[in-house]
Amino acid sequence: MEPTKTIWSLLETVYDPEVPVLSIVDLGIVREVRMADGHPEIVITPTYSGCPAMDVIRMSIRMVLLQNGYTDIRLTTVLSPAWTTDWMSEKGKQQLKAYGIAPPTPVPIVCDLGLFQHNEAIACPHCGSYHTTMISEFGSTACKALYRCEDCREPFDYFKCH
Amino acid sequence: MNARHLINYALHLADNALVLGHRNSEWTGHGPILEQDIALSNIALDLIGQARYLYQYAARLMNAAGEAPGQESPGRWMVGATGSPVTEDQLAYLRDSWDFRNCLLVEQANGDWGTTILRQFLFSAWQYYFYRELRGSRDRELSAIAEKSLKEVTYHLRWSGEWVIRLGDGTEESHARMEKALGQLWMYTGELFLPADYEQGLVPAGIAVDVTQVQPLWAARVQEVLNEATLTVPTAVAQKGGKQGRHTEQLGYLLAEMQFLQRAYPGCEW
Question: What residue in B sits closest to A45 (Cα-Cα)?
Answer without folding.
Answer: B148
